[in-house]
Amino acid sequence: MRLTLFAAATIACVTANTAASAQSPLKQIKVPLRNSAGQDAGTATFKTVKNGVKVKLDLENLRFGQHAVHIHENSVCDAPDFEGAGPHFNPHKKRHGFNNPSGHHNGDFPGSVSIGEDHTGEATFLLHSISLDPSAPNSIFSNGGTSIVIHAHADDQKSDPSGDSGNRIACGVIRLPSNGHI
Ligand SMILES: [Cu+2]
Ligand SMILES: [Zn+2]
């Protein structure tokens, strides 16, 4: 019987100005959102899973209907229009939407969230294009952090740059906790 040994080569990419914590890696973070009126709009929980990041939305105080969800590139939530959040998180310089041949942005979600007549809604999405690892190029903690934004309308998954999803109606700042873990 022949045994063949495979040596796994690990290539470490070191980013010069990333102050990576030596503590246990971040597995989960819960981000509070606020709506345009400054009310509590619920939470988004990001959890590292086998092939990506699971995002669980528990939303409230939002208008009835379908609403697009994205990660935007700045860790700024400036009510009422949340323009400071900037464009979609897009480190790979693609176009918007899962149905766009030049897509999709890292910060795009594969669906919209449905808000009921009681102004609450829940949804869970698996995103393959983001990471909670602060040293990863697609980390949602890149460049001081990002934000999660809810829009007035559904996402058409094609129109660049934002899926024709209208105004920004809620936002939550995503930043690495100062102790490196929750
Ligand atoms: Cu957006
Ligand atoms: Zn996008």
Quickly describe the structure.
With 182 residues, the protein is an all-beta fold. It is built from no helices and nine strands.
If you had to describe this structure to a student in words, what would you say it looks like?
The structure is a single chain. By secondary structure, this protein is mainly beta. The chain has a single domain, classed as Immunoglobulin-like, CATH 2.60.40. Helix content is 0%, strand content 31%. The strands form 2 sheets. The protein has a 7-stranded antiparallel beta sheet, with no helix packed on it. A two-stranded antiparallel sheet has the order 4-6. β1 and β2 form a beta hairpin. The protein is globular, with a radius of gyration of 18 Å. The structure holds copper (II) ion and zinc ion.
Q: What brief labels describe this structure?
A:
182 residues, two-stranded antiparallel sheet, Immunoglobulin-like, globular, 0% helix, mainly beta, binds zinc ion, single chain, binds copper (II) ion, disordered N terminus
